[in-house]
Design a protein that fits this description.
about 550 residues, about 65% helix, two-stranded antiparallel sheet, globular
Amino acid sequence: MIRTAEPVSPTRTRLRTAVGVAAAGALLTAVAPAVGVVDGSAPPAFTAWPLLALLALLPTALAALFLARGQELTAAAALVAPAVFAVGRLLGDLQLLVDPIDAARPELMRPASLDPPGPAAGLWLLLAGHVLLIAAGALATLGAEPDVRSERASFALPATAGIVAGIGLFTAPFTSTDALIPARGTFDSPTLPMLGGLVVTLAAPALAVLAASATTHEARKGGLLGLAAVLLAFAAPPLVTAVAVDAVGPAVGPFLVLAAAVALAWPQRAVKDEDAEHDVELPGQRRLHVIAGVLGLVAAATAAVGASTDHLVLPDGFPPPADYAARLLWPAAIATGVLAAALLAKAAVRPAFTVAVATIPLSAAGALDAVFTATQVDVVQPGVGVWFTAGAVVAAAAAAVTAALAGAVERDEVGTTTTEPPLPLIAATLIAALLAVGAFSLPVLRAPDYVPIGAFGLRVGSFGLLVALITVVVAAVVALRARPSRGAALLLGAAVVTAVRAWEYPLTAARAAEAAPGPGLWLAAAATAAFVVAAALRTAR
C-alpha cells in the first residue's frame, strides 16, 4: 500500500512564508543597533542593543510560536501590529538618514557635536528590516482564513488601553536637559518623525479596536498580544534611557504605553475554567446608586470646603496669598453635587455622574500642585484646605468605582446593545474626543511669566489633566457601544468635564498679569458643544 503525504494548503504555505519574512525583518532590526546605525563619531548613549534585539524579536517569536502550535489565525493576527507600526518606524528612522542630529534616538546614537554623523551599515539593515516586516504583515493578512466560530469578548478594556497607548505615543518619550538630545512630542518633531509618530499614535487605538472586535478568539488573542508586544518595544527603551543616560529623565508617555501593553496582554494570559469560575454577588442596583450618590455628595461637600478654606499657612500671622488654583473646585463641587443628588432620584443619571466625577481630581490636582510648589519654601506650610481637597479626591474615586459597579450590574441584568452606531454619531463623537485631547493638552491661559501645567508632564497637576482626558475619551468610546439613553448620558458627562476645563480661564486668569485666553480654552468650549451635539444624536432615532 502506497501512502501519499497530505497536501499543504496554499494558505498555510503563505503564512509560513510570512512568518519567515517577518523573522528575517526582525533579525535585521535586532542586528542593526549592534552593528551601528551611524559612524563612530556618535555612538549610542548606553549599551542598548541587547534590549533592542530582544524587543525586536518578540512579536515575530510570538507569531512563530502560534504557527508551530497550529494556531494559524492567531499567528496571522500577531503579525498585523508589527507591520503597521513598522510603517511609522520606517518614517521615523529615515530621519537618521536625512538629519541624525534631530533624530533624538539616544539608544541608537548620541551626537557629540553639531556635525552630523554619516550613515553606517546598521541603518540600511534597520530600514530593510522595517520593509520586510511590512511585507510580512501584508502576506499574513492575505493568507488568513476566517474561523467559523464566533465568540463574544469584552470590548471596553482593549479599546481603553489602545486610547491610553495612543496618548502616550503622542507625547515626548523622555525629558532632557541636553541640547543634542531633544525631547519632543509628535507635533514638535521634524517632518519624518512627525509623520511616523502620527502613524503609531493612530495605529494603537485602531488596532486595539480591530482586534477586540474580532469574531474569533484566535484572531482576538493574536491581535492583542501582537499589539502588546509592539507597545512594549516602544515603552521600554525610553524608560531605560531615562535611567541610564545622564541629562535625560522620565516622562509620563512611556508609562502610559507600558500600562496599555500590560492591559492588552494580561487577559490573554488568564486561563478560564468555567467549572471553577465563581460568580461574585454584588449589591443591587438601587443600593449601589445610593452609595454612589452619597459618596458623590461627600466629594462635592469636601471639595467646596477645600475651595473655601486656606491651602497655605504663612508664618507670623501673614495673610495667605490668593489661591486662584483652588477656585476651580467650585464648579467641580457644584457639578458633582447636582448629579449626585439627581442619581439618588433617578438611575438614568448614573453614566453622566460616573464621568463628571472626574472634575474633582481635575480641579483638585491643580490646587494641590500650587501647594506643592509653594511649600518648597521652608516657611510656607500646607493649610487645612489641602486635607479637604485630598479627601474630595478619595471620595470621588470611591463614588466613581461604585457607580461603575452599578453599571456592571445593570448590564448583567439588561444586556448591551448590538446595533451599530450611525455614521453621523461616530463622526460627532470622534470630533468631540479629538477636541478634548487638545483641550487638556494645550493651556487655557497664556501670560508672559506664567508656566502652564502640561497634561503629559510629571507635575501633580498633570495627573488631574490625564485623569480627565482619559475619562472623557473612554466615555466617548463606550457611548458608541452603549444603549442610546446611557450613551447620551455618558456624552453629557463628558461635556460637563470639558466645561469645567473651560471655566479655568475666567476663574483663574487673575493669577498672571497680561493673561490671555489660550488655545485650550477654545478647544474646551468646542469640545463641550460637540459632546452635547453627539448626545443629541445618540438619542435620535
